[in-house]
Amino acid sequence: PAVTHLTIGLVTGSFIFFMIAAMFDRKRVFTTARHVILLAFATVPVTVFLGYMDWQHFYKGAWLFPFQIKFILAGMLFIFLTGAVLLAFINQNGSGILVITQTICLATVIGLGFLGGGLVYGPGGKSNVKNENVSERLVSAGSMVFESNCSACHYTDRNEEMAGPGLKGLFQMEKLPVSGRIVSEENIRRQLSIPYKDMPDYADLSEDEVRALVAYLKTI
To answer: Is the pTM of this model over 0.70?
Structure first.
């Protein structure tokens, strides 16, 4: 829902007001900035709750790396917003520390927005989902797993070899390239944990990451 972006908008707005107040010595603008940062702080619990519900609904609670970073950034944002609110109301004329705190808050919400956009749209735009039974967001998460672990060796838009075989239309094939195993989720999982020939070992991928990766491979 759009309300999940409310905190990002308010933090950005408060930063702009604080900068205008600091540069032009506008006390009324500083008062507005204080009210906006307080409102941003008040929206954090709602944003976190709705983000958590999105994570559970669309990604089934998959503990992927982007979500680990988002949780860390959300914690940082709460801490620095708390500091910004206290500083804004203790020193009502502003201070250098407040400017630094506001800058950190802005950088944090930019990071959260960037990660959120990557999860929804994938690293190169929306995935071309051909299987309607596969969650589009799970596919996007899988595209990120592929980008981080597989893209250096495999094409997804052609069948030509890079370091490894091209994987376009993988789930329309009868057999996996090179190994000759039947194309199935089970055999892909097996090949990730017990690789064939020169393929590196990916046994360290979590079950959530493997599930997302398989969902993505079904769409290429």
So the answer is: no
CB of 109 closer than 8 Å to CB of 70 = no
What long-range pairs does 31-34 form, CB within 8 A, spacing at least 24?
A: 31/92, 33/88, 34/88, 34/89, 34/92
Q: Residue 199 pLDDT more than 90?
A: no
CA distance 86 to 95: 12
pLDDT in tens, 104-123: 999 999 999 888 777 666 55
Neighbours of 200 (CB within 10 A): 11
Separation of CA 61 from chain center: 13
- Altogether, the residues listed in the chain come to a count of 220
Q: In this structure, which amino acid lies at residue 170?
A: L
Contact 101, 190 (CB under 8 A): no
User: pLDDT tens, 132-145?
Assistant: 445 788 888 898 88
* Cβ–Cβ under 8 Å, residues 109 and 95: no
